[in-house]
């Protein structure tokens, strides 16, 4: 996290002696002990942030080395690196989505078609509708079909609430190598990315700081993914989402998008689960 600052006067003899100059300022990143920033090669750098970034880059490289570009390597990448609350969700497939009426049969057929469209044309997909209608289930199913059908696409499923909480946790733990820089790299490199449950944090009452963090994180991910397929699920419509986050994100979602409407699909969760809600 190198920071450029205004002109800083540096005594030549000090630069000659050490190659850098220590400043009396510290960075404002929370989560590591305060250390003085240094002026090095005409940049102002926090040595701790620098090391954290380097560590995460290294962790990411190690992750990728493990998954070569063979079909098998790519397939296992999906299972090993997807970010989920519960790994069992990755067992879902389109074929075990229970369809009881015409609406449900339609959405199931659409899911199969979408997997082909994602491979052929790098389409974005926006799946919206009420909780419990099986959006995450079909998102996983589509990604698994792409994962099996495509010879070159590396797929990743990411629960957005889980991702945000992992990044936040890493801010308070300087030894955690999987933090913001790591996840940014992971999510921007995936060829086909499923972002599950976007907007969930925003529709709850949260602080402005938390909202800004969510929006910035999403924006940075989508910005780094131009031209690649991203699939979204949300309990909100695209218009409702538009009221909660900025237009730059919405316009990226809408680019080359296929909508999948889960309204009027019955809640598929067990009754005991619904009563708890
Ligand atoms: Zn720092």
Automatic annotation (TrEMBL):
<dbReference type="Pfam" id="PF00308">
    <property type="entry name" value="Bac_DnaA"/>
</dbReference>
<keyword id="KW-0067">ATP-binding</keyword>
<keyword id="KW-0547">Nucleotide-binding</keyword>
<feature type="domain" description="Chromosomal replication initiator protein DnaA ATPAse">
    <location>
        <begin position="105"/>
        <end position="257"/>
    </location>
</feature>
<dbReference type="InterPro" id="IPR027417">
    <property type="entry name" value="P-loop_NTPase"/>
</dbReference>
<protein>
    <submittedName>
        <fullName>ATP-binding protein</fullName>
    </submittedName>
</protein>
<dbReference type="GO" id="GO:0005524">
    <property type="term" value="F:ATP binding"/>
</dbReference>
<dbReference type="InterPro" id="IPR013317">
    <property type="entry name" value="DnaA_dom"/>
</dbReference>
């Amino acid at each position: 996290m190198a920071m450029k600052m205004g002109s800083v006067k540096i005594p030549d003899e000090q630069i000659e002696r050490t190659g850098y100059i220590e400043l009396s300022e510290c960075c404002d990143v929370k989560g590591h002990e305060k250390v003085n920033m240094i002026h090095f090669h005409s940049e102002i750098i926090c040595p701790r942030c620098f090391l954290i970034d380097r560590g995460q880059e290294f962790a990411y490289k190690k992750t990728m080395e493990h998954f070569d570009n063979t079909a098998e390597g790519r397939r296992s990448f999906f299972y090993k690196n997807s970010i989920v609350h519960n790994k069992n969700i990755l067992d879902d497939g389109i074929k075990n989505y229970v369809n009881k009426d015409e609406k449900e049969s339609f959405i199931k057929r659409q899911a199969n078609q979408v997997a082909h469209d994602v491979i052929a044309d790098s389409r974005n997909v926006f799946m919206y509708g009420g909780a419990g209608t099986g959006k995450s289930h079909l998102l996983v199913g589509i990604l698994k079909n792409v994962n099996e059908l495509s010879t070159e696409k590396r797929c990743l499923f990411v629960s957005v609430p889980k991702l945000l909480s992992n990044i936040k946790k890493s801010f308070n733990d300087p030894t955690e190598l999987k933090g913001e820089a790591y996840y940014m790299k992971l999510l921007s490199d995936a060829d086909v990315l499923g972002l599950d449950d976007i907007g969930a944090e925003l529709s709850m009452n949260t602080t402005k700081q938390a909202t800004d963090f969510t929006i910035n994180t999403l924006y940075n991910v989508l910005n780094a993914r131009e031209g690649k397929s991203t699939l979204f699920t949300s309990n909100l419509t695209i218009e409702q989402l538009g009221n909660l986050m900025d237009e730059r994100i919405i316009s990226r979602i809408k680019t080359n998008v296929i909508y999948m409407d889960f309204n009027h699909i019955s809640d598929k969760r067990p009754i005991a689960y619904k009563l708890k809600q």
